[in-house]
Write a structure and sequence with these properties.
With 160 residues, this protein is an alpha/beta fold. Helices cover 41% and strands 18% of the residues. Strands 3-2-1-4-5 form a 5-stranded parallel β-sheet, sandwiched between helices. Bound molecules: 4'-phosphopantetheine (PNS).
């Protein structure tokens, strides 16, 4: 079975993430969406909450949601994963993603990183943008799955 991992902070998951996850599941037998904490980012949701939000949006037995407290490649090796799948938006993503792909390959040579080009309409979309729009009372419903719009709005208003 060919397993792919879609790793990220997913704080919160966006329609851009979901598109990449669903397209990865067309290419691999099983996809694990791996929620990791990124020490460089302040988070709005805890890792457990982020996992819950992703699970609300996905109804596909070939897609699992998990978390791991350690190196992504150690998790990939434990699971026997063949690839890490990441979305690329603009060139601005490339430097960082290429560095991650190279360090991951150097740590665990069996892993491949596969980049999928983001859809045109998601080129500008990021979790940070969603949080900014939401915190300024903007409408986020075009950017995140409908199942979680309310959760994000409530958190932005500090009500949950
Ligand atoms: O959504 P993000 O924040 O761009 O995702 C980055 C993430 C979480 C995938 C990356 O920081 C990561 O892989 N973290 C786990 C620790 C690790 O393996 N780092 C790479 C080697 S230094």
């Amino acid at each position: 079975m060919r397993i792919a991992i879609c790793p990220g902070s997913f704080d919160p998951v966006t329609l851009g993430h979901l598109d990449i996850i669903e397209r990865a599941s067309e290419l691999f037998d099983k996809v694990i969406v791996l929620v990791l904490s990124n020490s460089a980012k302040n988070s709005m949701f805890t890792v457990e909450e982020r996992m819950g939000l992703i699970k609300k949006c996905i109804n596909n037995p070939d897609i699992e949601v998990d978390t791991y407290d350690g190196l992504l490649v150690d998790y990939a090796e434990q699971k026997g994963a063949a690839a890490i799948v990441k979305g690329l938006r603009a060139m601005s993503d490339f430097d960082y993603e290429f560095q991650l792909a190279l360090i991951n390959k150097s740590l665990y040579p069996k892993i491949e990183t596969v980049f999928l080009a983001a859809k045109g309409e998601n080129m500008f979309l990021s979790s940070s943008m969603v949080k900014e729009v939401c915190s300024l009372n903007g409408d986020i419903s075009s950017y995140v799955p409908k199942e979680i719009v309310k959760d994000i709005n409530l958190r932005c208003k500090g009500e949950k």
